[in-house]
Task: structure prediction
Amino acid sequence: MRRFLSIFKMDLTNLFKSPVIVGYNTLFAALIILIMGFLTDGNYADSRDAFQYYAVTMLVYGMLNGAMTASNCFMERDIKRPNLRIIYSPAGSFPIWFSKILASFVFDIVLHVLLLAVLCPILHVTLGSNPLYFIALMAPVEFAAAALGTFFCCIFHCEETTSTLLSLTVSVLCILGGTFFSLDGLGPALAFISKLSPVKWLNEAFFTVACDHSLTLFWPVFLGATVVSVLLVLGCRLFFRTEDYL
Amino acid sequence: MENLMSVSRLTKSFKENKVLNDVSFDVHQGEVLCILGPNGAGKTTTINILTAALGSDVGEITYKGRPIGRQLRVYKQALGIVPQDLSLYEELSAEQNLSFFASLYGLYGSKLKNAVDGALVFAGLDDRRRDKVKNFSGGMKRRLNIACAIAHRPELVIMDEPTVGIDPQSRNYILDSIKKLRDEGMTVIYTTHYMEEVEVISSRIIIMDHGSIIAEGTKETLKEGIENEKKYTIDIEENGKISHDEFFAVEGVKSVKIEGNTIEITSLKGIENLDRIIALLSNRGEKIKNITSENASLETVFLKLTGRKLRD
Result:
């Protein structure tokens, strides 16, 4: 356990020491919420005004992009080399990939909660009657994203390939899910396609918690993300081979 | 010397490419075993299998008489590994790197502190302990790379070409450090393609080529086979049409290689025939620019065994 904590601490430190990753999860996210909110201000109904809409959807977008935090933490070239020593050590192979998932999850959720703590009062964004539900719903989604990034690395053995594929997948799902603009008003066909994107349901779940003060989508999404997380962790265990690191 | 590790019949293929073929050798307690071979000989694959980071298709490794697979944790605890690439966190200090890597071997508290202090002194980086690794020179990083492997005082240190791309001073420092480790009782497996390093530090040598061991022994026994030969390299101004046969007529000449204006002659030792070779060239009107003579070296051993130079 002491060895695992040592590795986890190192992974977390490396993430917080990377200005690019920290900036992407905070400044970039804040900027995009502000820009999109400003540009579309007045296009939304009162309960979901532009800033409210983009605070939620961009946060979901940021959470899913947490997969790239994990892939960076796991197989980025400068990190991968020293991580080789963990493979050589008696710590075993489990802490190598699991600590990356855990560190990415903690890193992302801490930064995203801090971002909300700053933006909510300024932009009058609500997280619902009890913000803890909102944060509790973030947790399994952030964890699943981190596990997804690590799982992709275990499959493709390369950070660049993983990041490219993840970026593409997340962007397509987010566009279809109405992250950047709602597809519901663009005809029944597009509205139907939009419903196929899991991001649509993630957005809806967060909106119902934040704006409608309802938990109707909370548990399905919470449990769904938890099941996906468990499956991805099992997948990492199955597919991770130490020689991929050599 | 007591046997520490036995490697038997290691075979490894990557898809259709067989990179190791029936490799067997022993490692004795307290020795510096050098694995010598050109790039692509199979040295790094052998090392990766020895470190248990890579599996072999066939073969077994035993450590202190037991297969490593049955005592993986104990085996890894006894190992210190210096990878070929620098494996350090550039954004952290030397002390932080050492502290983290030593903690992976179960050290903490005062034991960890002592281990880190000892490793910093070993690497000659005590006064730079709080400096970030990214500000170090290449030689300093190489030294730290080794220090990270020995901080937990392993029984067996495996070094995969640890001196690649560094200045002569740092190389000498590292070679001296390896001798120091040997004197302290550590066993070292050292791969390289630098003959000079092997000459300086080896207790025993394994020469590998094309995934197989082609020779094994001390440097003395390896050289013994060709000890009775010496090589002349003669540079002439312009090569007329001098033939190999004319040199073979000279007593003691065993082989002749003519490439452009350079003639390489291997001759039996003890027969003083250089004057006759010079006379032969003078009589043919050739102008000699330079003559060098060398006795048996590991380079000539390798050349004799493989027909090519180590760095070809």
